[in-house]
Design goal:
The complex is a heterodimer of chains A (467) and B (196).
Chain A lengths: L7 H7 L2 E4 L5 E4 L2 E4 L5 H10 L9 E4 L16 H17 L2 E3 L9 H7 L8 E4 L13 E4 L2 H10 L1 E4 L3 E8 L8 H12 L7 E6 L1 H4 L3 H9 L8 E3 L4 H7 L8 H11 L12 E6 L6 E3 L7 E3 L14 H11 L14 E4 L1 H4 L2 H11 L9 E4 L4 H9 L2 H7 L25 E4 L14 E4 L2 H10 L10
Chain B lengths: L7 E9 L6 H4 L19 H4 L21 E4 L11 H9 L3 E4 L4 H10 L2 E4 L2 H13 L4 E5 L4 E4 L4 E4 L4 H9 L3 H6 L2 H9 L2
Parallel strand pairs in B: 1-2, 2-3, 3-4
Antiparallel strand pairs in B: 1-5, 5-6, 6-7
Helix pairs in contact in B: 3-4
Classes of the chains: A alpha/beta (467), B alpha/beta (196).
């Protein structure tokens, strides 16, 4: 190999290629495989039909999250189809000896929350899961991305998938973030500039002051949303913030193994002069609290602005108009003051402790607007325990909010947490597609601060007025 | 063998000139609860196809008998969003074998090939020509030729070539899948894993 400077991405990718197929994809080795109840059953069925087994069961971890209720988890799951998916996950993992953190397990929670918090997401790893928000784990300097069920079957049976190497993009955001501007806003800002397909075909490295100074929770939020601009994944070079987060976590390396791995992790950075296929720069000062007004995550804007006119945005006018019609909005409308029916805080995007701290910072000493239904859903039992320990639970309760149990919940509304048709929800999740949060639901994506401000006032509100 | 092989497909096409068709539209999350790959075609584009009383919406293209065929033609950035392979299963189960667009989301493109649907990426101009030809005559046929890697509008004779890597092309032509390939190199993978 040449001695030319290497990117973080190249270092991790190249060290996982088992075989390069001429005029074809790389046979790509996977260190960590997460599975859940929705995208794994057909893969296990495939193994059975072919009469093959799981090659490395210790490299796969299962959690139940997509389809689980967020109340009364101690009771049997009512929906028979959901219950069956959970049962199949339990059976399949038991059959092949795969760790299973099912409902009621203290480690249970959203797959992209529990991996990192239990110390099994580590720098330099390749990580996949049948879920597009697997990009979350890139926050640790891992190559992590979502796969389909055929690929889940490949990883189970051979610990490899077939992947053409993506192109490389670096997104630099420098400067200091303003008051009330959170990692979610940084991500929604970038997506609004690149559009939902702007990074398709690329793997992104996030660099610059803003990400250096960001907590691991914040970095996870940013990397989580990489898929929403079409990127396969996004990653951030590991540093002391990363190492401090991992050290001491239950399943993280310990003792001599820690020292050995740490020495390797410290080599994971992009070298001076390394080349990217595309490099994009943004200034932190240009970013304000964001909100979406349309039906894809690229249709976002600074909360104080007005909805753009069809002619001013990239893409088809007809598609744009269809989107605004669905939302019940008009060009040039201000978002501030729009009535909000539901508020959802949670999901793999914003379901970590820092998100609930931010939410609590605004609702503390105030009351939830009477007409707003709020769903406050921790990303895991560990997050839920932190919420209680830190007194956030009391703040929420006094302000009129109830805490639910962990799961994906209203982010994709596979369980009963569905936003009714025509209702508006300010949601800290990741997708505002038509019907995403329930048939006919209308989603406004935003940060936990914007969600809190909306929950208190009952209308879209600039959170900076509370800070 | 996970699916039928694909060689040359000659068919009329169903036009869907909408951009950013995401996988939540192709198959909404509430229909992902099956544990077998069966019946997803019934819920393809469920919320665009049926109203809240489960009655077909007359203005949606799949409910319009004028349009039919094994080829679905979509606008730019088709298949964005969730990685659910159920989206590709639903398209296949409904009867489509090929999706044409000027741009595909990565994960959807991979899922489609893995279940035996050929994603054909054409230029925006050619996509426009296809939509025009179908508008003029809904029975107009397209020919997708995988061996030659070309797509043609038979009525006008317009042809464009499309890209696919040699490995995937070979798989589709023969109905092979990646698992067959990976099973055959298990010893090499085990040896590789020792150093990890």
């Amino acid at each position: 190999m040449s001695n030319s400077p290497k990117t973080l991405f190249d270092k991790v990718w190249d060290s996982h290629v088992v075989r390069q197929i001429t005029d074809g994809p790389d046979v790509f080795f996977i260190d960590r495989h997460f599975i859940h109840e929705v995208t794994s059953p057909v893969a296990f069925l495939g193994l059975e039909q072919r009469g093959i087994s799981v090659l490395f069961p210790e490299k796969t971890f299962a959690t139940a999250d997509h389809n689980t209720p967020t109340i009364n988890q101690h009771l049997p799951v009512e929906d028979p189809l959901s219950a069956n998916q959970l049962l199949q996950l339990e059976k399949n993992t038991a059959k092949y000896g795969i760790s299973h953190w099912g409902l009621g397990n203290p480690k249970n929670g959203i797959v992209h929350v529990v991996g990192p918090e239990n110390g099994i997401t580590l720098p330099g790893m390749t990580i996949v899961c049948g879920d597009s928000h697997t990009s979350t784990h890139g926050a640790f300097g891992a190559i992590a991305f979502g796969i389909g069920t055929s690929e889940v079957e490949m990883v189970l049976s051979s610990q490899c998938i077939m992947q053409p190497k993506p192109m490389k993009m670096r997104i630099n955001v420098n400067g200091a973030l303003g008051k009330g501007v959170t990692p979610k806003d940084v991500a929604l800002y970038i997506i609004s500039k690149l559009t939902t397909s702007g990074a398709t075909g690329y793997f992104v490295e996030y660099a610059g002051d803003v990400f250096r100074n960001m907590s691991m929770e914040g970095r996870m939020t940013v990397c989580n949303l990489s898929i929403e601009m079409g990127a396969r994944g996004g990653m951030i070079a590991p540093d002391q913030t990363t190492f401090d987060y991992i050290e001491g976590r239950e399943l993280a390396p310990k003792g001599a193994e820690w020292d050995r791995q740490l020495a390797y992790w410290k080599t994971l950075f992009t070298e001076e002069g390394a080349e990217f296929d595309q490099e994009i720069n943004f200034s932190a000062a240009d970013i304000e609290p964001m909100i979406t007004y349309g039906t894809n995550p690229g249709m976002g804007m600074g909360i104080s602005r007005n909805i753009p006119k069809a002619g001013d945005v990239e893409g088809g006018v007809a598609t744009y108009e269809k989107s605004l019609e669905y939302m019940g909005f008009a060009e040039n409308d201000s978002m501030i003051g729009k009535k909000v029916d539901y508020v959802f805080i949670g999901s793999c995007t914003n379901g970590r402790i820092e998100d609930f701290r931010a939410f609590a910072s605004i609702v503390k000493g105030r009351k939830k607007a009477e007409h707003v239904t709020a769903w406050v859903v921790p990303g895991s039992h560990i997050v839920e325990a932190q919420i209680r320990e830190e007194g956030i639970y009391d703040i929420l309760t006094e302000a009129g909010f109830a805490l639910r149990q962990p799961g994906c919940s209203a982010c994709l509304a596979m369980n009963d947490d569905k936003i009714p048709a025509g209702k508006y929800a300010v949601s800290t999740s990741n997708r505002n597609f038509e019907g995403r949060q329930g048939p006919g639901s209308r989603t406004l994506l935003a940060s936990p601060l914007v969600a809190a401000a909306a929950a208190i006032t009952g209308v879209v509100t600039d959170p900076r007025t509370f800070l | 063998m996970a699916y039928d092989s694909f060689s040359i497909l000659k068919s009329s096409a169903v036009p869907m000139p909408i951009e950013n068709v995401d996988t939540d539209q192709i198959i909404p999350a509430r229909f992902l609860k099956a544990t077998e790959r069966k019946g997803f075609g019934d819920n393809l584009f469920r919320d665009w196809r049926y109203d809240k009383n489960d009655q077909p919406k007359a203005d949606f293209v799949l409910n319009n008998p004028t349009y039919s065929g094994k080829i679905l033609v979509g606008g730019k950035n088709f298949g964005s969003g969730s990685s659910r392979e159920h989206a590709a299963w639903a398209i296949y189960d409904y009867g489509f074998r090929c999706v044409v667009s000027s741009f595909f989301a990565d994960i959807f493109r991979g899922n489609a090939i893995n279940v035996g649907i050929l994603p054909v990426q054409v230029s925006p101009e050619f996509l426009h020509q296809i939509f025009e030809a179908i508008e003029k005559d809904p029975t107009t046929e397209l020919e997708v030729n995988l061996p030659d890697q070309t797509i043609s509008i038979l009525a006008t004779g317009a042809t464009e070539s499309f890209a696919i890597n040699g490995y995937k092309k070979h798989n589709l032509l023969n109905g092979f899948d990646d698992i067959d390939y990976l099973q055959a190199m298990k010893d090499e993978i085990k040896a590789f894993s020792v150093n990890r």
